[in-house]
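Q: I'm writing up a methods section and want to include an example of the input and output format. Could you take the sequence below and give the corresponding predicted structure tokens, formatted cleanly so I can copy it straight into the document?
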Amino acid sequence: MTRLRGWGSLILLVVTLLSACTPTRNTIGGYTPEQLAQVAQEARADCELRRGAGSVPPTPFTTDGCSVWPDCAWQKCCVDHDKWYWCGGSAADRRRADDLLSECVARESASMASTMWVGVHLGGAPWLPVPWRWGYGWPWPRGYEESK
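A: Here is the clean output for your methods example:
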């Protein structure tokens, strides 16, 4: 029973640490500060195209590449995917983002693309209090928005 209580405490600690985390800095390698600034500008412009001018998340864009997955040859695919996830939007927007990630990764590895699609589909829901959730540029909790 003590061992079970210990695991419960550990799980509670991890969930508390991750609760509503919105990343405030980039944690990706292989990009210069200038490149990261360019990616942030692209993320903002892409988001405004999808949502409308001036309707971007209050938290500046950040990327961690492929989150808890190795970046490998598909790091740019993950950074582009982060642009969509930072911006958020409808469930249809999220499906499109996940499909684009899968298509991009498939150019390097078809089996990895399927595995990553399942991972982001299960682990990136907007109601999860994790820093890689759908709409992570907005304060948590935030769900899906209506399709436009």
